[in-house]
Design a protein that fits this description.
Blueprint: E1 3-5, H1 7-15, H2 20-26, E2 29-32, H3 33-41, H4 46-57, E3 61-64, H5 78-89, E4 94-96, H6 100-108, E5 113-114, H7 116-125, H8 133-141, H9 148-159
Helix pairs in contact: 1-3, 1-4, 3-5, 8-9
Amino acid sequence: MTAVADTSVLIALARLNLLSLLHELFGDMAIPDAVADEALRFRADAPANTFIVDAMNHGWLHIEPTRPPAEFLGKLGSGEREAIHLARAIAAEVVIIDDLSAHRAASELGLEVTGTAGVLKAARGRGMIEAAAPLLVRLRSQGFHIGDELIDEIRQEEEHGS
């Protein structure tokens, strides 16, 4: 499967020491230059950087240069714009983006889209993790914007075995 990731999922999963879930679920991953720059620029997040660089060194996370036209989805950040542009350019099967506006834009362009919560749900569904909801709560406590409704929905699904 070909997948493209935006910055937030890389940092989130690296902070949870679960970055390898991306490789296990999607195989090789592509990220555009802007995402690599954003992900590795967070020097205060050195442990996350280590996991991301390790994934690149192991060859399953690789940087693909892309240059969307200046007017392409101009209201989005450069990482989101480049991730969506790259996903279209390489006909990726999925693009992993958490930003709601970027998620909607990618969907409107016909791309299959998921986010960090979707990755964790998929990993739980395949028995790779025990539960997604506690991990989302942990990420929220670290400053990630994850709504109560989403966490509650996933928690209910997990409690009811779906």
